[in-house]
């Protein structure tokens, strides 16, 4: 897929609200706070040796990058519930795969991201794999019964068979 094509991001209403709240905080009070810290550090004198100034500027850069990321995600967001009739692996669905065709060696996970699905890592133990991960990319668009392979970090090819594709219920 060409880089300029923007994919729709599926979000629950809870996840959308959480991301919108974070964006509002960062682009409002958060931005003002960092700007004030930069101004205070600037008044301390020589900026070449001012650690507080450089730290505040670095924090500002990270914050602005996060603001751009959140704004992009929210602009591409499609809010709603996970599809109820799924037969193809796509972000927001729960997938069970069997490794090397062995149905006693399976893994069940949701394709997406914790942040976008509104999952709290501290209280939810759902396995989540990114669509950009080697496994996620290999199975994207596949159906129950299809096989795919991907390269593990050690270079070994791993084969998986899609055992189940179901709606994700948080």
UniProtKB/TrEMBL annotation:
Residues 9-79 form the Transcription elongation factor GreA/GreB N-terminal domain. It comes from the Bacteria. InterPro entries: GreA/GreB_C_sf (IPR036953), TF_GreA/GreB_CS (IPR018151), Tscrpt_elong_fac_GreA (IPR006359), Tscrpt_elong_fac_GreA/B (IPR028624), Tscrpt_elong_fac_GreA/B_C (IPR001437), Tscrpt_elong_fac_GreA/B_fam (IPR023459), Tscrpt_elong_fac_GreA/B_N (IPR022691), Tscrpt_elong_fac_GreA/B_N_sf (IPR036805). Belongs to the GreA/GreB family. Keywords: DNA-binding, Elongation factor, Protein biosynthesis, Transcription, Transcription regulation. It holds the Pfam family GreA_GreB. One of its GO terms (molecular function) is translation elongation factor activity. This is Transcription elongation factor GreA. Necessary for efficient RNA polymerase transcription elongation past template-encoded arresting sites. The arresting sites in DNA have the property of trapping a certain fraction of elongating RNA polymerases that pass through, resulting in locked ternary complexes. Cleavage of the nascent transcript by cleavage factors such as GreA or GreB allows the resumption of elongation from the new 3'terminus. GreA releases sequences of 2 to 3 nucleotides. The keyword Transcription applies. Residues 87-166 form the Transcription elongation factor GreA/GreB C-terminal domain.
